[in-house]
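Complex 381.
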Amino acid sequence: MNFSDQQLGIYLGGKAPEITTDLAGLEEHARQVLSPEALGYIVPSAGSGATARANRAAFDRYRIVPRMLRGVARERDLSCEILGTRMPAPLMVAPMGVQKLAHPEGELATVRAAAALGVPYVHSTAATHSFEEVAQAGGDAPRWYQLYWPTSEQVCLSFLARAKAAGFSALVLTLDTGLLGWRPADLDRAFLPFLNGVGLANYLTDPNFEGVDNPVLHWAQMFPNPGLSWDDLPFLRRHWDGPIVLKGIVSREDAVLAAEYGMDGVIVSNHGGRQVDGGIAALDALPGIADLVGDRLTVLFDSGVRNGADAVKALALGARAVLIGRPVLYGLALGGQAGVDHVLRCLLGELDITLALSGHSDAHDLRGLVSVASSTVGPRD
Ligand SMILES: Cc1cc2nc3c(=O)[nH]c(=O)nc-3n(C[C@H](O)[C@H](O)[C@H](O)COP(=O)(O)O)c2cc1C
Ligand SMILES: CCCCC(=O)C(=O)O
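Predicted structure with 2-Ketohexanoic acid bound:
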């Protein structure tokens, strides 16, 4: 196999892509095709956008320090197993609701693209397709379920049972969205997809919603759930037979509590800056948490990853795998299933090439691969 076969054949399916391979430029392209409401919901972040900017600034501060002459294999294997789930590389699709805002095929296009590559897909409670539809589209491919814990215990139990029956193997409990954040782009338009019934597919197909007069009002009564506390977690353990991962952890204290409460993992994440404005960059929270609980918990990461090199940085700072958020939706907006396929292939390809060029044939033991760029280094005067 020659070089170009390897680059284009393996990574991109052998043809010139219709979408740029510069994933950092993807947002700009996606902005051209999204409706104003969809753009306002998907792209911006909470408040002034400070948390989202901090996410990116943190990635810029860390620099990869490649090592040489390490006998890197011509054919590398980045595959790994995370909480019982095999994956071709330590990459997963982050749970994201309301995907029909990006493309009419919504989550079905995303899960099909992920499944074809074996990349695990995490199904959001706020999806525009139900557990069962997504499971059918995804076939045997790995999938996890992300719970927004409804205030109704009956609905909560029904969601857990439906997810289990539909083959979702691990549970992600998102903790940073007890309420929606202050999102000016939506507030200025008075736009919330859920009020139009968008993002309620799991709810509307639930037996507990049968015969309900006003399903949107019913949803509104059970979505905001800021009252949850650590002592609620044993309930989940009793009713979910499989790994449980807490998403939205950015403090060391909470990471230690997650371990003490017997959780299996945490996702270090600030929800892509969509919840708290002025929050700590997720990447800045990662190394301290990984050092403290990495031997007891599976530490995963999202928020701000835009390309394969970013994923390498997060892995080197202690994440066992990285979840991809908005870039997947940008691919979805630009090309449906083919667009998501393209984005995932680019991520897998750039992750592989960056690791190989850094002296690694797999994605294990990357400690020491990044350093913090020092602002004092510059031309001598
Ligand atoms: C449009 C959109 C919808 C989202 N919906 C959910 C969701 O339903 N559940 C969840 O846990 N996180 C949700 N997230 C957050 C992602 O899982 C992830 O934490 C975030 O997108 C990572 O940041 P990034 O987009 O900057 O990579 C959503 C993100 C976006 C952009
Ligand atoms: C009501 C769920 C909101 C979806 C979400 O998590 C997001 O938009 O960030």
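The first strand starts at residue 62 and ends at 64.
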